[in-house]
Amino acid sequence: MDSFELNKIAGAVLGSLLFIMGLGVISDALFAAPHMAKPGYALPGAEEHHGGGAAAAPEVVVPLPTLLAKADAKKGENLVKACAACHSLDASGAAKATGPSLYGVIDRAVGSTGFAYSDNMKAKGGKWSYEQINAFIANPKGVVAGTKMSYAGEKDAAKRADIIAYLRSLSSNPAPLPTP
Ligand code: HEC
């Protein structure tokens, strides 16, 4: 084989490589994966850590009454969809198998509906004041150890206020808002 022939072979090899690369570029352009406009619906996170540990309470920067005064129940309605995976919200007050009804929950006695609550929830006592609900949905396990509510918690205080503003509306006679 002389060098001229070698050059021809090398040229042919290079040529087909270029051709294959070109095909790749064109097919990428043709079949580019469509981008999702919105990320898919996020299911409420399963429990992240097991068994106690120092799950730090969220830092309180703005007091809850102030947050509630400017909370947006419309946004809350959207956020509460994550809760509705387990909780019913309608006025019938019927529990789901996965959670007690949240209709009229503000100022309701803790663990007082026809739901098979955890022992610690049954023993907790008191009522779901704005502050209590706020603390509970920020960190359910931190407030009621061993709770059956496997929800990681909403760490954003403004979002919790939106959630609570919407929960407040689920009542024939909404509890008065706390004064900031
Ligand atoms: C994965 C299912 C699940 C999700 C998601 C969930 N919960 Fe719960 N929730 C429960 C269960 C189960 C209980 C009963 C807990 C127990 O008995 O320890 C409960 C209890 C409660 C209670 C006490 C009710 C009572 O009758 O005493 C409140 C308030 C509450 N949840 C609010 C919320 C809110 C608000 C959200 C959304 C931000 C939410 N939960 C998301 C399952 C869930």
Structure, described:
The protein has 180 residues and is mostly helical. The protein has two domains: 1-37; 64-169, Orthogonal Bundle (Cytochrome Bc1 Complex, Chain D, domain 2). 43% of the residues lie in helices and 0% in strands. The chain has eight helices and no strands. It has helices at residues 3-30, 64-69, 73-79, 81-84, 119-124, 130-138, 140-143, 157-169. Helix 3 crosses helix 8 and helix 6 crosses helix 8 (157-169). The chain is elongated. The model has no long low-confidence stretch (mean pLDDT 87). The protein binds heme C (HEC). The site of heme C has 29 residues, from helix 4 and helix 6.
Count of alpha/pi helices: 8
Poorly predicted runs: none
Q: Which compounds are bound in this model?
A: heme C
| CATH class term of the largest domain | Mainly Alpha
The main sheet comes to:
none
Which percent band covers the strand fraction? under 5%
**Average of the residue pLDDT scores:** 87
Structural class based on helices, strands and sheet pairing? mainly alpha
N→C terminal distance: 92 Å
The CATH architecture designation of the largest domain is Orthogonal Bundle
Number of domains: 2
Which homologous superfamily in CATH is the superfamily of the largest domain?
Answer: Cytochrome c-like domain
- What is the string of SSEs from the N terminus onward? HHHHHHHH
Would you tell me which CATH topology of the largest domain applies?
Cytochrome Bc1 Complex, Chain D, domain 2
Radius of gyration: 28 Å
Strands, total number: 0
User: Residue share in helices?
Assistant: 40-55%
Task: Indicate the overall shape.
Answer: elongated
